[in-house]
C-alpha cells in the first residue's frame, strides 16, 4: 500500500518534530475489528521520549499526521493505540488503481533462485494423508514464492532404497506368485504396499514364536529368519546382485507409476526428481575433507563424528565404523549436489516436525564446513495430521490412503452438491469435473488453512461443508460472482457518490491482498492466503445479501458494484491458484 509508505514517513517526521527522535523504526498493523480504523500505531515504545501518558502521546502524533495527509479522515485513541481511518475518497481511488493495474504482488524475490524439496516418499507403500499435507503444503509454497518473484525449482527426493524396500521385496518373493498391477487390478504403489504390510504381519508372528520359546524380544527381532533374509537382500543390492537389482527396479517402477497417478490427481508436480539410490553414497568425500580440516573427529572404533556441544547440541555421528554413511551424510552430499546444479540462494525442506533436530544439525554442519549456501537452508517444519481414530501406521496397514481419501471426498462432494440441488442444466461430464474440483479443493484447503507448524485433526465431513471456512463455500462464492458477471452488461469502472461500510471492507481486503502474499512468503505459511481469501468471500456474501447489484438504479453505483464483484472474483481465483485449488465457473 502506497499510503503506508507515506504514513510511516509522516509518523517519523512527527516523532522528530514532537520528541526529537531520529532513525526510529515505525510500523503499523491492521486495526482490530472491534475498533474504528484501518491501520494502528502502537505508541508505547515512544513514551520514554514523549514523557507523557500513552493517550496524550497518541493524540499528539494523530493530530500531526492527520494535518499532513489528506487521505486521513479521522483518528481515535484507545489507550496506547492510535487508530487511523482513511477517507472514502482514498478507498475509492485505491479501488480504481486496483481495477486499472490488476493484482500487483511485490517482487521481493528479485529473481533469486529457491529450491523447494517436498513429498520425498518411500517406495514401499502408497501415499497417505500425511503425504497429502506435505505435498499440498510444498506445492503451495512453490506457488507463493513464484508469485513474489523467485525462480522456483520444485524438487522431490525419492527414498527408493534401504531395509524398508527390501521388506516388500522379500514378501513379494515369498507370497507374490508373480502378481502384477495388471493382474491384481491394483495401482503399483498399492500392490507393493500390500506386501510391506504382509511382511510385518509375518515378521510379528515369527517374533512371537521365538519369544514363546524363551528368546528375549529384542534378540528375537534380530534372529527372525525374515529379518535375516532382508538384511542379506540389502547387502546383495548394495553389491549389485543382478537378480536383486532387477526385482528392485521392477517393483519401484510399479510404485513410480502409481505415485504419478496420485500426484496428477492431487495437482502437484516437480521440476527435478532425485533418487536416494543415486545419492546415498554422496557426502563421504565431504566427510573426509572435514576430517582433514578438523571439522569432524574420529573415535577409537573408526566412526567419524562432529562435536556440536558449543551450539548447545550433542555429538553427532556422520560415518559408521564400518565406513557406511548415515542419513545426515547423504543430506550433506545432496545439499552440495543441489548447489552445484542450481546455485540456489535458498533451499527449503518441507518435512514433518519430528525431523526438527535433524535439520538443525544439518545446517550447523554445513556452516562448520564453510558452505556458502548454509544460511539459505530452511526447514519448513509442519505438524502431523491426526484422525479421530488415532495415529496412522503404515506397516500395520492402518493409514488413510491418499487415493481412497480422494475417492471418498469426491463422492461426498457429489452427494452434498446433489442434495443442495446445484446441478441443474449440467452435463454428466461437467458434473464429474465439478465433483472432482470440489472434493480435491476441499481436501487441500482444509489442510492448508491451518498454520503449517500446528498439529491438526482432519475431519473429512467438515472439510466438504458448503458453509464456513471451507473450499466449497469459497468456490460457491466465486461461481456466484461468475453468474452475476454473465448476467451483467459490459460496464466501465464508475465511482459512486457514497461508499457503504461493506464496500469499504471489500476494497480494504482487496488492497491488502498483495501484502498477504508477501507475508505468506516471508513466513512460509499458506494459511495466511487461505484465511485472507476466506475473509474476502465471507465479506462478499454479506455485501451480496445486503445490497442490490444488478438491480441497482443508480448507474454509477451499479457499475462500481459490478466491477468490485469482478475484482473480488479475480482475487479469489488468484488466491486459490496459490493454494493449488481450482475454481469452477458453475455449480
List keywords for this structure.
Gyrase A, domain 2; 5-stranded parallel sheet; about 575 residues; 4-stranded antiparallel sheet; globular; Isoleucyl-tRNA Synthetase, Domain 1; alpha/beta
| Mean of all residue-level pLDDT scores | 93
Cα-based radius of gyration, to the nearest Å: 29 Å
Q: Please, what is the CATH homologous superfamily of the domain at 408-578?
A: Isoleucyl-tRNA Synthetase, Domain 1
Structural class: alpha/beta
What is the number of helices? 22
Largest sheet, spatial ordering of strands: 7-6-5-11-12
In helices, the fraction of residues equals 55-70%
Assigned CATH class of the domain at 408-578: Mainly Alpha
Distance between the termini: 35 Å
What coarse outline follows from CA principal-axis ratios?
globular
Contiguous uncertain segments of 5+ residues: 390-397
Report strand %.
5-15%
Report the count of strand segments. Answer: 14
Main beta sheet = 5 strands, parallel
**How would you classify the quaternary structure?**
single chain
Task: Enter the CATH topology name of the domain at 408-578.
Answer: Isoleucyl-tRNA Synthetase, Domain 1
Q: What would CATH call the architecture of the domain at 408-578?
A: Orthogonal Bundle
Amino acid at each position: 500500500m502506497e499510503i503506508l509508505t507515506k504514513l510511516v514517513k509522516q509518523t517519523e517526521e512527527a516523532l522528530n518534530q514532537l520528541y526529537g527522535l531520529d532513525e526510529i523504526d515505525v510500523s503499523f498493523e491492521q486495526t482490530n475489528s472491534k475498533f474504528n480504523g484501518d491501520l494502528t500505531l502502537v505508541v508505547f515504545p515512544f513514551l520514554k521520549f514523549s514523557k507523557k501518558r500513552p493517550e496524550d502521546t497518541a493524540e499528539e502524533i494523530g493530530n500531526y499526521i492527520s494535518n499532513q495527509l489528506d487521505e486521513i479522515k479521522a483518528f481515535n485513541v484507545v489507550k496506547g493505540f492510535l487508530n487511523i481511518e482513511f477517507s472514502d475518497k482514498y478507498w475509492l481511488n485505491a479501488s480504481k488503481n486496483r481495477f486499472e493495474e490488476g493484482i500487483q504482488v511485490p517482487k521481493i524475490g528479485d529473481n533469486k533462485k529457491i529450491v523447494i524439496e517436498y513429498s520425498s516418499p518411500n517406495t514401499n507403500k502408497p501415499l497417505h494423508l500425511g503425504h497429502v499435507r506435505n505435498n499440498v503444503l510444498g506445492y503451495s509454497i512453490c506457488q507463493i514464492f513464484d508469485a513474489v518473484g523467485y525462480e522456483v525449482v520444485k524438487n522431490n527426493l525419492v527414498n527408493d532404497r534401504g531395509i524398508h524396500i527390501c521388506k516388500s521385496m522379500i514378501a513379494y518373493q515369498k507370497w507374490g506368485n508373480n502378481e502384477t498391477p495388471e493382474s491384481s487390478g491394483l495401482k503399483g504403489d498399492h500392490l507393493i504396499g500390500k506386501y510391506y504390510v504382509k511382511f510385518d504381519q509375518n515378521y510379528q508372528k515369527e517374533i512371537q514364536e521365538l519369544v514363546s520359546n524363551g528368546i528375549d524380544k529384542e534378540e528375537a527381532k534380530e534372529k527372525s529368519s525374515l529379518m535375516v533374509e532382508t538384511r542379506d537382500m540389502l547387502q546383495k543390492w548394495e553389491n549389485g546382485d543382478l537378480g536383486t537389482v532387477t526385482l528392485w527396479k521392477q517393483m519401484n517402477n510399479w510404485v513410480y507409476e502409481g505415485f504419478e497417478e496420485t500426484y496428477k490427481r492431487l495437482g502437484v508436480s516437480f521440476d527435478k526428481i532425485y533418487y536416494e539410490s543415486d545419492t546415498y553414497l554422496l557426502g563421504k568425500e565431504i566427510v573426509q575433507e572435514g576430517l582433514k580440516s578438523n571439522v569432524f573427529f574420529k573415535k577409537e572404533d573408526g566412526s567419524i563424528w562432529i562435536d556440536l556441544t558449543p551450539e548447545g547440541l550433542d555429538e553427532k555421528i556422520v560415518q559408521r565404523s564400518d565406513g557406511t554413511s548415515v542419513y545426515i551424510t547423504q543430506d550433506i552430499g545432496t545439499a552440495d549436489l543441489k548447489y552445484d546444479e542450481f546455485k540456489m540462494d535458498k533451499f527449503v525442506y518441507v518435512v514433518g516436525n519430528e525431523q526438527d533436530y535433524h535439520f538443525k544439525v544439518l545446517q550447523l554442519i554445513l556452516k562448520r564446513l564453510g558452505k556458502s549456501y548454509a544460511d539459505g537452508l530452511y526447514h519448513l517444519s509442519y505438524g502431523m495430521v491426526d484422525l479421530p481414530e488415532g495415529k496412522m501406521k503404515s506397516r500395520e496397514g492402518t493409514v488413510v490412503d491418499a487415493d481412497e481419501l480422494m475417492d471418498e471426498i469426491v463422492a461426498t462432494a457429489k452427494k452434498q452438491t446433489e442434495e443442495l440441488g446445484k446441478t441443474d442444466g449440467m452435463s454428466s461430464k461437467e458434473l464429474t469435473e465439478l465433483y472432482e474440483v470440489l472434493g480435491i479443493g476441499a481436501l487441500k484447503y482444509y489442510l492448508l488453512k491451518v498454520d503449517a507448524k500446528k498439529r491438526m485433526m482432519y475431519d473429512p465431513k467438515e472439510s466438504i461443508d458448503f458453509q464456513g471456512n471451507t473450499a466449497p463455500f469459497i468456490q460457491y462464492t466465486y461461481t456466484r460472482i461468475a453468474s452475476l458477471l454473465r448476467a451483467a452488461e459490459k460496464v466501465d469502472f464508475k465511482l459512486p457518490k457514497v461508499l457503504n461500510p461493506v464496500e469499504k471492507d471489500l476494497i480494504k481486503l482487496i488492497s491488502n491482498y498483495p501484502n498477504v502474499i508477501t507475508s505468506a512468503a516471508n513466513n512460509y505459511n499458506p494459511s495466511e492466503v487461505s484465511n485472507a481469501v476466506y475473509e474476502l468471500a465471507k465479506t462478499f456474501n454479506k455485501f451480496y445479501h445486503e445490497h442490490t447489484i444488478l438491480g441497482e438504479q443508480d448507474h454509477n453505483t451499479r457499475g462500481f458494484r459490478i466491477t468490485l464483484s469482478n475484482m473480488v472474483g479475480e482475487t479469489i481465483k488468484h488466491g486459490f491458484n496459490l493454494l493449488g485449488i481450482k475454481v469452477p465457473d458453475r455449480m
